[in-house]
Amino acid sequence: MNEQKHNISNGMRQSQLFTRTKRENPSDEEAKNAQLLIRGGYIYKEMAGVYAWLPLGLRVINKIKKIVSEEMEAIGSQEIIMTALQNKEVWEKTGRWDDEKVDIWFKTALKSGTEVGLGWSHEEPIVEMMKSYITSYQDLPKYVHQFQTKLRNEVRAKSGVMRGREFVMKDMYSFCSTEEKHMDFYNKSTEAYLNVYKRLGLGDITYVTSASGGAFTDNFSHEFQTLCEAGEDVIYVHKKDNYAVNEEIFNDATLAKLGAEKEDFEMKKSAEVGNIFTFGTEKCEQMGLAFTDSEGKRQPVYLGSYGVGITRLVGVLTEIFSDEKGIVWPREVAPFVVHLVALGEDISEAESLYKELTDKGIEVLFDDRIGATAGEKFADADLLGMPMRIVVSKRSLENGGAEIKGRTESESKIIPLSEVVSHVQKALQ
Ligand code: ATP
Ligand code: MG
Q1: Sheet of 388-392: strands edge to edge?
Q2: Alpha-helical regions (H) of 75-159
Q3: Closest Cα partner for 408 from 343, 334, 347, 342?
Q4: pLDDT 10s digits, 312-322
Q5: Cα(281) to centroid of ligand 2, in Å?
Q6: Which stretches of 102-178 are DSSP H helices?
Q7: How far is the CA of 272 from the centre of ligand 2 (A)?
Q8: 309 CB contacts (<8 Å, ≥6 apart)?
Q9: pLDDT of 229-272, one tens digit each?
Q10: Cα–Cα distance, 114 to 368 (Å, whole number)
Q11: Residue nearest to atom 8 of ligand 1 (CA)
């Protein structure tokens, strides 16, 4: 597994955590996701649309990355990291250095005066790079992906981490020799994306959505849209079949292509959590990426580009999985599965349970703080949103063990200390 790579360890003591929870919503945030994430100490706001990821928030990101990594590697992609500083000349080849064409560029200059761009996308740079590695048909197909911080000078940044000026994207690129092979991978990536959203707990409310653009596939690109009131998009969801159409192209021509009627669809608010795009051979032709086929003839390469909004997903998950008390993380992305809360001065029983649980590979946030009141600790547990809360107190021990409850359950159960691990393991199955 990938645990090591994305640095997910089993336990954390709350007494050692430098972040603090806040009772009050920050006054300068309208978005629920940013309010809750800031109050929980998941993120720190540097400026509008620019957030630092703190220990708990980073764990959520790493959980999402791990799921995405596994699904991308399963379809044959290799992980890389491209550079944040980009070459002007590379983008000039397709005309996309122009601020008229791309209106979210951050640009800067070297001491020498040479202009450079700050990566908002890596489509052109990666095609340029692959010219060093793809020359013959034997070099194809190739699939690569990265988790990269994109920089975009967005006009509006009012949706918290759902629209950042700096945000983490997973972007993958496919390089194929024929349209057939290209489309085969495009379809595989669609399935891989659906797996990702399913594993994140968003499967039921995420739709493959036809959107404008794309070199073929009937001139659509495909977005993955998750139903979400706080989302910035509007889609039309087919009432029976499992797909949607972005409002931008919800017109007679699109409906005719899809063989559907207006009445078949329902309008919904949504957030774009992924976007896959086919360039056909156009971009590689513009940039001069070609290969020699088995007969020695030069042929252009088919390019696909596949994005997932990693940090936007944290925002979407927070918007969807939360209640009036705080966040309610799905287990797969929760920073910890268990929030172990010790009450009172003598926390030795809780200490042993912490050791036992983490030794068994169960992820535990241990509220070992002496001095915080029970009320404060419970409010924090609700705000932070781990799926399972286990309380060890004088009273719980007198009652026969630890009090266990799910984040949204109102009643807890007493489980003997010796059975807590097996109880948790069972719940995790
Ligand atoms: P949008 O339409 O929301 O502006 P986009 O179409 O420009 O997004 P892409 O370039 O396709 O986005 O990026 C791939 C994915 O990255 C998007 O599907 C989205 O999930 C995420 N993303 C894009 N812009 C942002 C942003 N400013 N902040 C956070 N995530 C973003
Ligand atoms: Mg998009």
Answers
A1: 11-13, 364-367, 338-342, 388-392, 402-406, 413-415
A2: 88-92, 123-130
A3: 334
A4: 999 999 999 99
A5: 20
A6: 123-130
A7: 7
A8: 167, 169, 272, 273, 274
A9: 999 999 999 999 999 999 999 999 999 999 999 999 999 999 99
A10: 54
A11: 272
What is the torsional sign of CA 278, 281, 286, 289? Answer: positive
- Joined together, the tokens standing for residue 177 give 């020799």
Protein residue whose Cα sits closest to atom 4 of ligand 1: 163
| Residue-wise pLDDT tens digits, 90-134 | 999 999 999 999 999 999 999 999 999 999 999 999 999 999 999
d(CA 70, CA 200): 13
CA of 248 to the centre of ligand 2 (A): 12
For 342-384, write each residue's pLDDT tens digit: 999 999 999 999 999 999 999 999 999 998 999 999 999 999 9
**Residue from 161, 275, 317, 319 to probe ligand 1 pocket by mutation (most atoms less than 8 Å from CB):** 275
pLDDT at 3: 45
* SS3 state of residue 324: coil
What number of helices (H) and strands (E) belong to the chain?
12, 24
Residue type, 302: Y
In sequence order, which residues have a C-beta less than 8 Å from that of residue 304 and are 6 or more positions away? 173, 174, 176, 182, 185, 186, 189, 276, 277, 278, 279
Residue 373 CA to ligand 2 centre (angstroms): 46
Q: Which atom of ligand 1 approaches the CA of 164 most closely?
A: 28
- The alpha carbon of 110 and the centre of ligand 1 are apart by a number of angstroms equal to 28
Per the CB < 8 A criterion, the answer to whether 351 and 337 are in contact is no
> Can you tell me the distance from the alpha carbon of 54 to that of 351, in angstroms, rounded to the nearest whole number?
25
How many angstroms is it from 223 CA to the middle of ligand 2?
A: 7
Residues with CB under 6 A from ligand 1: 121, 152, 154, 163-164, 167, 169, 272-275, 307, 309, 311-312
* Nearest ligand to the CA atom of 171: 1
Which ligand has the shortest distance to the CA of 49?
A: 1
